[in-house]
Every structure is written in structure tokens, then in C-alpha cells.
Amino acid sequence: MTQPLFALSLGFGGVILATQIAFGAPQCDSRDRVTALLAERYGESRQALGLAGQAGVMELYASEATGTWTITLTLPDGRICLMASGSAYDGVADKLPARGERA
Fold first, then answer.
1. pLDDT surpasses 50 at 22
2. Strand, helix or coil at 35?
3. 86 φ, ψ to 5°?
């Protein structure tokens, strides 16, 4: 369980970093407003979450019906920021290969 979460964290970290570099500062607002927007406009609900260092909580919102997805970062002050979004969401639970095995 720890290896998949670690790999997922690295992947999300890379996406977040790439998005910030490409698009500048993220859009932030109150948690209630952002989660309501994601639910009402895109039909997205929280699919995964994880700690983002000691500075926040990363969450993945997605909709299997629409295929849209959004990665958010909740900051210590309670604001939630949109970090990345996209389409063609496909929830998978693939197991990572054992150490030493080829992927």
C-alpha cells in the first residue's frame, strides 16, 4: 500500500509543479465554493487525497461520468487552490511491480 501511494504522490507532485511552471500562480478560494463548483459544474467528487509535504493536503476530484478531473491543494489557512485539471479520467488500481521486476 505504501509503494503505490508514494508513486502516486510523486506523479501528482510532478503534475502540480509542471502546472505551476506553465500557468503561473494557482487559483484559490474558500473550500466550500471550490468543492461546490467542482460538484455542480463538472460532477466531480473527491477520489483520492494525500499529504503534500507539511504545507497542505492534495486532493483529486474526478467524475467518471464526464471524464473530467481536478487536482487541488488545501493550504494551512483553509483556502483550496486549483492546481491542475483535465479530461479522460480513468480510475485505476493497478499494482506496482515488485522491487526488481520490470514494469
1. no
2. helix
3. -175, -165
Reply yes or no on whether the pLDDT at 90 is more than 60. Answer: yes
Hey, what's the cell of 42? 463538472
Cell of 100: 526488481
Rg (CA), the chain: 14
Q: Which helix (H) or strand (E) holds 8?
A: helix 2-23
The amino acid occupying position 92 is V
- How many Å apart are CA 17 and CA 81, to the nearest integer? 13
Output the pTM of the full model: 0.68
Domains of the chain, residue spans: 2-86
pLDDT tens digits for 35-72?
A: 999 999 999 999 999 998 888 999 999 999 999 999 99
Alpha-carbon distance 83 to 101, whole Å? 33
